[in-house]
Amino acid sequence: GVFATARGASTDACFLITESGTRRTAPRPPYQSGYYVERPQNEVIVMSGLEPMRARAYNPSENTWRDIAPLVRMYGGRNYDSLDYQASLGCVGGHLVVLGGGIDESREPLMRRMDAYDPAEDTWSRLPDVPFTSDMNGLVEVGGKLYCFGGYQGHQGPGSQHEDARRTFVYDPATRAWTDGPRLPHEPLVNEYGLKYISAFERSKRLCIMGTFSLNDGPFSPSLFLAFVWDPTRETWDAFPTPPVVPEYRSVSQVDGHVVAYGYDSAGEHIFVLRPGSRNWAEWDIPAVVDNAIPLPHFHAVRIG
């Protein structure tokens, strides 16, 4: 199914959407925004961006919310728990991972920091610093490893992939080390905010990347919305089908082989679902009750049963 929650804290309404219907969940706790939403295990973790950081976990099977342990990141004698809007969040090995994020004077020092949350123990642990500057990157788990890509183009830190927009990094939890991943097939297009809006998901234990790419380096390069799947044996990218509508904003999540892509364009909002083994995206209607209750929704794939 698909979990829907608001990005801002203006409403506590949340919904679970399936092919057979939509139901309202237990209300989100007060003052909880949903700027960051991830699913490390069966629960969906919703995190705010600004101080004080609020984070709760929603269990779709039990229809309950719980507080999670706070993330403590000391710098200069102060705990900078705010992720602001520069953090990168993802999941690997059943753990929630936070890269970078910070506000004011803490932003630069925290750009290489990496923390992990264990839902089973309700504890945070610090992992080795990343070998690049992280700034609003995309993260996706593929084959038990964490891939990092994209991000904010305006930051030009040494060793960052922003020196090469096609560069990716891979984190292996077994070795707790980062290595270079496959270079993207084309240069990602940068939007007016300096962000490379590309998304990724896993397909048959392979990395799939989807977004708008510039097809050459010239000043009048054509830009197309494309998707590719990485073949590690041949070390090459193969074309992959994209949703039939090209939305301006995109987010992608997945559960049990089902991929959920969300976005909006001039015609409205769209949800597309890719089933296991299929190469055809099916559009799901966004129920009016969800559209009316949540002004700017965040959709995420969840396991309901």
Secondary-structure topology with pairs:
Elements: E1 2-6, E2 14-18, E3 21-24, E4 36-38, E5 44-47, E6 55-59, E7 64-67, E8 74-75, E9 78-79, E10 88-92, E11 95-99, H1 107-110, E12 114-118, E13 123-127, E14 138-142, E15 145-149, E16 151-152, E17 169-172, E18 177-180, E19 187-188, E20 195-196, E21 198-203, E22 206-214, E23 223-231, E24 236-240, E25 249-255, E26 258-265, E27 268-274, E28 281-284, H2 288-293, E29 297-301
Antiparallel strand pairs: 1-2, 1-29, 2-3, 4-5, 5-6, 6-7, 8-9, 10-11, 11-12, 12-13, 14-15, 15-17, 16-20, 17-18, 19-22, 21-22, 22-23, 23-24, 25-26, 26-27, 27-28
Residue-averaged pLDDT = 86
Give the class from helix and strand content and strand pairing. Answer: mainly beta
Radius of gyration: 19 Å
Terminal Cα span: 9 Å
- Oligomeric description of these chains: single chain
* Main beta sheet: 5 strands, antiparallel
Coarse shape? globular
Report the helical percentage: under 10%
Low-confidence stretches: 155-161
- The total count of strands amounts to 29
Strand composition percent = over 45%
| Continuous helix count | 2
